[in-house]
Amino acid sequence: MIPAIDIQQVHKHFGDLHALKGIDLRIEQGEFFALLGPNGAGKSTLINLLAGLLRPTSGHLQVMGFDVNTQYLQARHALGVVPQELVFDPFFNVREMLRFQAGYFGRGRENDAWVDEVIESLGLTDKAHTNMRRLSGGMKRRALIAQALAHKPPVIVLDEPTAGVDVELRQTMWDFIRRLNREGHTIILTTHYLEEAETLCSRIAMMKLGQIVALDSTRNLLNRLPGKKLQLKLDNALPLSLQPLVRDQHDHFYILALSEVAQLEYILAELRLASVAIEDLQLVEADLEDVFVDLVG
Amino acid sequence: MVDLINSRMRGPWTLFKKELLRFWRVGFQTVAAPVMTALLYLLIFSHVLQDKVQVYPGVGYTAFLIPGLIMMSLLQNSFANSSSSLIQSKVMGNIIFVMLTPISYLQFFLAFLAASIIRGMVVGACIYLVAIFFVDLPLAHPGWILVFALLGSALMGTFGIIAGIWAEKFDQMAAFQNFVIMPLSFLSGVFYSIHSLPPFWQQVSHLNPFFYMIDGFRYGFFGAGDISPFISLGVVLACFFALSLVTLRMLKFGYKLRG
Q1: Which of A55, A79, A147 lies closest to B259 in CB terms?
Q2: One domain, residues A141 and A216
Q3: What ipTM was estimated for this complex?
């Protein structure tokens, strides 16, 4: 089957800055894929290259088998992009914007039922006739997502879609995106909320300084750190002997990284020796954030 | 009407429709205001100069002035339509909604051009309709009037696309308007015949494309002008094709639009 996204040896220079250093990436149709990385890693540059907003210095990018530069008409039909910035056209209301967006892709009145469905699914029904200027930040974000979906593209790229969005909308939005994914749409997500990527995505690529430093299934990435985390709330400061294990701390709350459960006995013994009492204790599995910090932090 | 357009053409058609709606939504600013400005010019200049200046035999100064004012407003508003839409979209960031679509660079050009022509023609028609209430204006060659109105608005719509793509800030656009468009339009023979100028400034006026658009347009009303309308047509056509080629090249290579 033709991959939804096929990126081969893509380099991008901005003057002296080598923003992307030979990216190779293949995303299959129907995947829910996450692209993670710190600011400046090159995620948005890669998305902009896929969308045709930037041109690669070298290399090839395809969407549903169509080259984004030489077959851009077909490639753009296949792609819907939710941009990171809250951009909008202040002259029009939500429904008008969605109809225009669908129209740009050649969709006419026959697409209105889909536009209505998108509006309803994203909780925009009450705001359908409200000017974009008058929407709150969260509502603008919903409208942006709706715009990317207006022409029902098979591949949907969501660049930080939940930034500044309340919990309720996040839930509504993910339910709808999950449904689209079940119906066969390929979803590519960049997010700072790593728990979203962990929960939603079957495969993850982690980027750092213009390179992919990890590309694997979510399960395999989580298994890379076999250890656990010990969350402790103490009545006093942690003994110096345990400081090398500290992953995070504030006041007398500590998170310690354990490579094996047997370390727990040693920690408890050290605390007893220092006469530090435990007020609360929790042993949890390493999550994607730990893997992320380990690989790109 | 939209459903009569095939899916290949629906993209540029939608963009054209959106551009029309964009200026229509702010009609007071985009149509009523330039009509009012032109009528104020007409009122003041005709009051001061009507009985003192006669440019063509048998043509009063007010009648002489009207075609020039119509054309000047038409040109300025065609330019303003495409340039303001593009600079606003770039500054607001919503240009991305068009850049992500399969609309080709030629279709993009045609959609912006058509919307600019319509705004220019609407403003010009409104000034004409109001002016003929006050002044008896002949229509010697309506065909020339239509040709120069269409070509003039097309040329300036194209120039507006270039300015809109080039400018990155409202400040740059204002400089373009105030230091290029305004001087060229005011020094083009709107308010006078270039035959009233010293020989040197007559020669300089011949380098101004606005002069040919206005003189050709005026010829359509009075059957008289500073030069042959065919020469004006040739110059305006050449300028339009040259600017169109530059614009299409900028759009094709994504100049200041795609990195």
Answers
A1: A55
A2: yes
A3: 0.90
